[in-house]
Each structure stands twice: as structure tokens, then as C-alpha cells.
């Protein structure tokens, strides 16, 4: 579906990939809050998330400060600039074998390999360090670049959430996807 003119283009034109040697993935720090907040308020980044417009830096800082010790929160830097962030939150109790994944890429870096690199790192942590059997996510049904990325990484469609979220004046559906190892 083509976005309406008032919407950001969720699928930017092709740009050259970023040299993998320029991508530094590391744990997010509290002092990253302002850069993460700026990125999360960009229209293309926000389009694929549940975030509201005009998120405050304080909200982002509180989110970073309130993470559980077992949560994984990463950022990808390119030439010292935060280009993406991603996280995996492990469930507790009888669902301790599973976690939920979140991933977002700065508007300037979408379609340039940053999301793929970040996803590989998050899944390596899930597999090699957290021992997760199941990684879950939700993705809007009209976000074809993200869906393709997740499918390439082994995620499968498990269902569709109808009217999952309200985005720019209308309800949108989302796929439930998961990867089991």
C-alpha cells in the first residue's frame, strides 16, 4: 500500500550500504538517551513502532534506566552517530525460554544494512548467551522491508493482529512473528 502524501515514506529509496567495518554495536548507555530520543522522533523510525510523536528525552532516559538487568539494549554507531537501536527482553517464569525483540533504524540509515547487522547481533546474543529457544516480535503488515528482514533471519508468521495499533488516523494490522531454535 502506498502511503498517503502526509505520511513519511516508510520505504526510502535505495542508498549504498554502510561498510560493515564502520558499524560499531555496543550496549546502550544512559548518556545515549538524547540521541536515541532524537532518532525515535524521526517520522520513518516512528512509522514502524508504537511510539507517539514528540516523545520527550525524559521518557527515553527513564526507559533506559528502568530496564531489567537481563534485558539487552544495544545501539549501532556509524562514525560516532547512533544509527539504530535494538533490544531483547526475556520473559520470566514459564516463559523464560522466550523473549521479545524490538529494532529501529535512523531514517538516514534505513535500507543500508544497519538493521541486518543489528538483528544478527541481537540473535547471536539470544542464541549464544541467553539460550533463548523462542524470539518473538510484532511488525506492521505494511512494513515490507522489515518483514523481509525478519523472514531472512528465520522468523515465521504466526498470525495477524487485526486493528493492532492506531497510526496516523487509522487502525493498522500487525503480524505476530517468531523464530524458534
TrEMBL record:
N-acetyltransferase domain mapped to chain residues: 23-181
Stored CDD domains: NAT_SF
Sequence ranges of Pro residues compositional bias: 1-19
InterPro entries cross-referenced by the UniProt entry: Acyl_CoA_acyltransferase, GNAT_dom
Superkingdom assignment: Bacteria
Annotated segments matching region Disordered: 1-20
Residue intervals passing through the bilayer: none
UniProt-recorded name of the protein: GNAT family N-acetyltransferase
Enzyme class: transferase
Cited PROSITE patterns: GNAT
Lineage: Bacteria, Pseudomonadati, Pseudomonadota, Alphaproteobacteria, Hyphomicrobiales
EC number(s) per entry: 2.3.1.-
UniProt keyword list: Acyltransferase, Transferase
MF (Gene Ontology): acyltransferase activity
Amino acid at each position: 500500500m502506498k502511503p498517503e502524501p502526509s505520511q513519511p515514506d516508510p520505504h526510502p529509496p535505495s542508498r549504498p550500504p554502510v561498510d560493515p567495518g564502520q558499524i560499531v554495536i555496543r550496549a546502550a548507555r544512559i548518556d545515549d538517551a538524547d540521541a536515541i530520543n532524537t532518532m525515535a522522533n524521526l517520522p520513518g523510525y516512528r512509522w514502524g513502532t508504537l511510539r507517539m510523536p514528540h516523545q520527550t528525552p525524559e521518557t527515553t532516559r527513564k526507559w533506559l534506566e528502568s530496564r531489567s538487568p537481563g534485558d539487552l539494549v544495544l545501539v549501532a554507531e556509524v562514525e560516532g552517530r547512533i544509527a539504530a537501536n535494538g533490544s531483547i527482553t526475556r520473559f520470566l517464569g514459564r516463559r523464560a525460554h522466550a523473549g521479545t525483540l524490538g529494532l529501529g533504524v535512523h531514517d538516514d540509515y534505513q535500507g543500508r544494512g544497519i538493521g541486518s547487522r543489528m538483528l544478527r547481533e541481537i540473535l547471536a546474543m539470544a542464541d549464544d548467551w541467553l539460550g533463548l529457544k523462542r524470539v518473538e516480535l510484532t511488525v506492521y503488515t505494511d512494513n515490507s522491508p522489515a518483514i523481509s528482514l525478519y523472514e531472512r533471519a528465520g522468523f515465521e508468521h504466526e498470525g495477524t493482529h487485526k486493528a493492532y495499533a492506531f497510526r496516523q488516523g487509522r487502525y493498522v494490522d500487525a503480524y505476530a512473528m517468531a523464530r524458534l531454535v
